[in-house]
């Protein structure tokens, strides 16, 4: 059984979907902890499923490295097999990535390497793209530059706003994430070998 820690910053919709999947005894992974970089509303999902949670406040630490050290201590305490970044709006410090690589995965609301960074949906609309997508990647020291584990296209429709497009991307992101975690747990997807473009 694969043990998973999930890190969030916001509402945790991907987290909720993963918790629901892991609630099925046939799913080969369990969420052992949920962490956040602030008092995120998504922590309520962990509470609802009886999963321990913690907050390591980014603003409570003098540097990103100090924040990363404390986050690392919390993760060491639960020893997850895999760390999922699910809407965590912080770049992990290189030392923390090195400690856990390649066992950190992240979701992104674009068809990488197109539109990396914090505003993937907005950037796709601004570029006039006819399609965008969702990706699940292995985290490295770059911004959305790690090996791609899964991705799927999502069309941009006439009249789309950032909100409407993002709402159509989210279900694809959730489905890809649930499948990637399942495949990692079943040894069907080697983390070291994503299809890097």
Describe the overall structure.
- The chain is α/β, with parallel strands linked by helices and 197 residues long.
- It has a single domain, classed as Formyl transferase, N-terminal domain (Rossmann fold).
- Helices cover 35% and strands 22% of the residues.
- It has six helices and seven strands, in the order βαβαβαβαβαββα.
- It has helices at 13-22, 43-48, 64-78, 94-100, 120-126, 162-185, and strands at residues 2-8, 29-36, 53-55, 82-85, 104-108, 131-138, 148-155.
- A seven-stranded mixed beta sheet has the order 3-2-1-4-5-6-7, with helices on both faces.
- Strand 2 (29-36), helix 2 and strand 3 form a beta-alpha-beta unit.
- Helix 1 runs parallel beside helix 6 (162-185).
- The two termini are 31 Å apart.
- Mean pLDDT is 94; it is low at 193-197.
- It comes from Microbacterium marinilacus.
- Its EC number is 2.1.2.2.
């Amino acid at each position: 059984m694969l043990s998973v820690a999930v890190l969030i910053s916001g509402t945790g919709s991907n987290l909720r979907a993963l918790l629901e999947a892991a609630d099925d005894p046939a799913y080969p992974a369990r969420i052992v902890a949920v962490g956040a970089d602030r008092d995120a509303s998504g922590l309520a999902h962990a509470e609802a499923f009886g999963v321990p949670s913690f907050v390591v406040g980014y603003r409570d630490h003098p540097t990103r490295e100090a924040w990363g050290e404390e986050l690392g201590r919390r993760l060491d305490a639960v020893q997850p097999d895999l760390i999922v970044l699910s809407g965590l709006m912080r770049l992990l410090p290189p030392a923390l990535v090195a400690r856990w690589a390649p066992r950190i995965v992240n979701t992104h609301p674009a068809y990488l390497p197109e539109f990396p960074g914090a505003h993937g949906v907005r950037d796709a609309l601004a570029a006039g793209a006819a399609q965008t997508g969702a990706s699940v990647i292995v985290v490295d020291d770059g911004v959305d530059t790690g090996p791609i584990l899964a991705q799927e296209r999502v069309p941009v429709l006439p009249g789309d706003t950032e909100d409407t497009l993002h709402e159509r991307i989210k279900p694809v992101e959730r489905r890809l994430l649930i499948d990637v975690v399942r495949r990692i747990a079943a040894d069907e997807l080697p983390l070291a070998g994503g299809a890097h473009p």
